[in-house]
Amino acid sequence: MITLMNSLGTKMSLLKVIRYNTYVLGRNSIARCSSSSHSDGETRISQILKEKFPQASSVKVVDISGGCGAMYEVHIESDEFRGKRTVQQHQLVNQALKDEIKAMHGLRIFTDVPRK
User: Fold this and answer.
1) What is the rounded CA–CA span in Å between residue 12 and residue 10?
2) Is the pLDDT of residue 113 over 70?
3) SS3 at position 6
4) Distance between CA atoms of 11 and 17, rounded to whole angstroms?
5) Model's pTM, two decimal places?
6) E strands within 1-116?
């Protein structure tokens, strides 16, 4: 078993160190997600989607990369998706964000049609 010393000088197993660091990272991510401020990337992507989908009743963009802008999650609800399969809806979003996607590591897309 590998042991390490923490900042208090106590021995900790490598597994405990990993679990603790994962817990701290998870808590920080939750705090970031509940924050009301948006990153520049979130704002820019949100504006683009609102321009490309003027009928959208809801557009939500979240930086899920911890704030570095490498990965985003997009939730968009628009009547423009009515009658289209999910893959076609996602293709429309990908096309709208084609220039921004070049600089991203990943993009999660969630689309829906508003309920009447």
Assistant:
1) 6
2) yes
3) coil
4) 10
5) 0.66
6) 3-5, 11-13, 56-63, 71-78, 106-112
